[in-house]
Amino acid sequence: MVLSSITDGIARTIEGAAASVSEALFEPVVRLGVTGLSRAGKTVFITGLVANLLDRGRMPQVQAQAAGRIEAVWLQPQPDLTLPRFDYEGHLAALTGDAPRWPESTRAVSELRLSFRVRPEGWLSGLTGPRVVHLDIVDYPGEWLLDLALLDKTYADWSEEVLSRLAKRPEGAAFLATARAEDGALPFVEGKAQALAALFTAYLGGARQAGWADCTPGRFLLPGDLAGSPALTFAPLPKPGDTPRGCLWREMERRFEGYKAQVVQPFFRAHFARIDRQVVLADVLGAIHRGPQALEDLRRVMADVLGAFRPGRNGWLTALLGGKRVERILFAATKADHLHHSQHGALTAIMEAMLREAKDRAEFAGALTGAMSLAGFRATVEETVTREGRVLDCVTGRLEDGRVVAMYPGRLPDDPARLLSPARQGAERWLEAEFGMMSFAPPLRMAVRPGEGPPHIRLDRAVEFLIGDRL
Q: Which residues 6+ apart lie within 8 Å of 392 measured at CB?
């Protein structure tokens, strides 16, 4: 019996290694992780991306497409049988139906596989036929990605950071007052821990609704089958002068460490550590609209996100041996369709400046990073209007209540420092200008010609950056 188990295990290992070699050499697989920070439009991005890869008439910047080397792209069942499938068809129907609406956000990990049949270029084209390249798109909540930054923090450090941030946020006033009045040196009582965790979870929900980016621990907002478990029943507390055994503070510390070991680390091993390329979406325009503190919060969170990756280059042997590292990381400012194209360069420059320090570290390690402004599904058209003698570059779209309006959000500065400097200095509001935002709905009766996906902004450039070398 023991010998049989051993031989079965050896056989499975050999089969797995053979499958890995076949995959790496004959039908390569690129695993693209897609996540989005607060209100970034991740589901819309993935839906628009898949639709425009299936019908590539609007993808001229994908070089393999421009050269006519992509013969076909089709959807296949995803290889991981334990993950839900990304509901591409349902989301596309929501965006393009008779009463178009934005699709519901995904609340767990999901996956979708696209397979490309591509003719090789150069002298190889005469020696070999078309080859197949698989693209596995892995969708996961941004809150779970942010949790990776917790792995390097102690409970005391995390508590101090969170409580100091809450002092500047009205959404955290109720929890902060309760936490500061609590004596962590007193004996642990389960009911008290549950009340503190519930109040802290309520703060996280309010913070996410207000647009703050650092809503961790992420599973507090998306608990799934962990709801009510001790791993999600803790909260930040000031450290008392004495922490005797069995006290409230020590039990909170134990549960925090348990959350890292039993929730965050398994996610990293099962999904995140296997990713080759990554897209991180951020609503930079929304943060600018909310003010300097929201923009600084987003900048800090994006730097933490980039620090959580294991950047570097993957050789084929490295991949076979399991030493995967993220080779390319794209940070994308979404909702570029809320601006006239004349301002897209300024939005991209702001994103690049926010990432400068972390970007330099990643590129030193061998990863290729990029910043871009885009829209996965374009909801507006551009229009130039005259108001009080001024010519304004606007965008026009349909609001949620059905009205069609033209919006001029204000002018983004050409120098990102005019926004980032006051944000880092803790300014409470912009001194020079305000930046407006409207919530546009998907357009009615969108006309799409055969062979074309839905209108977008720069999805083709994003695809070329992320997987163009594999096509």
A: 384, 385, 386, 408
- Say if residue 77 is in the same domain as residue 218: no
C-alpha 176/C-alpha 183 separation (Å) is 13
**Strand boundaries in 140-246, DSSP class E:** none
Nearest to 146 by CA among 46, 295, 267, 228: 267
pLDDT of residue 376: 95
The domain containing residue 225 runs over which residues? 154-267
Contact 114, 135 (CB under 8 A): yes
Whether 418 is in a domain gets the answer no
Express each pLDDT in 394-404 by its tens digit.
Answer: 999 998 888 89
With beta carbons less than 8 A apart as the criterion, state whether 222 and 232 touch: no
Pairing mode, if any, of strands 131-139 and 29-36? Answer: parallel
Read off the pLDDT of residues 343-358 as tens digits, 9 standing for 90 and up: 999 999 999 998 887 7
Strand partners, 326: 311
Considering the domain architecture, whether residues 175 and 220 belong to the same structural domain is answered as yes
Task: Give CA–CA dist 346/51, Å, rounded.
Answer: 28
Contact 59, 460 (CB under 8 A): yes
Retrieve residue 363's tokens.
Answer: 């590129």
Name the DSSP letter for residue 378: -
**How many domains would you assign to the chain?**
2
Model's pTM, two decimal places? 0.86
Tell whether 251 and 183 lie within a shared domain: yes
How are beta strands 277-282 and 29-36 bridged, if at all? parallel
Q: Are residues 170 and 232 in the same domain?
A: yes
**Low-confidence residues of the chain: pLDDT under 50:** 1-22, 24, 315-321
| CB proximity list for 162: less than 8 A, separation 6 or greater | 236
Residues sharing a CB contact under 8 Å with residue 458, sequence separation 6 or more, in sequence order: 61, 336, 372, 373, 374, 375
105 and 186 share one domain = no
In-domain check, residue 440: no
pLDDT tens per residue across span 85-121: 999 999 999 999 888 999 987 778 899 999 999 998 7
Q: Is residue 374 assigned to a domain?
A: yes
Domain boundary among 242, 267, 292: 267
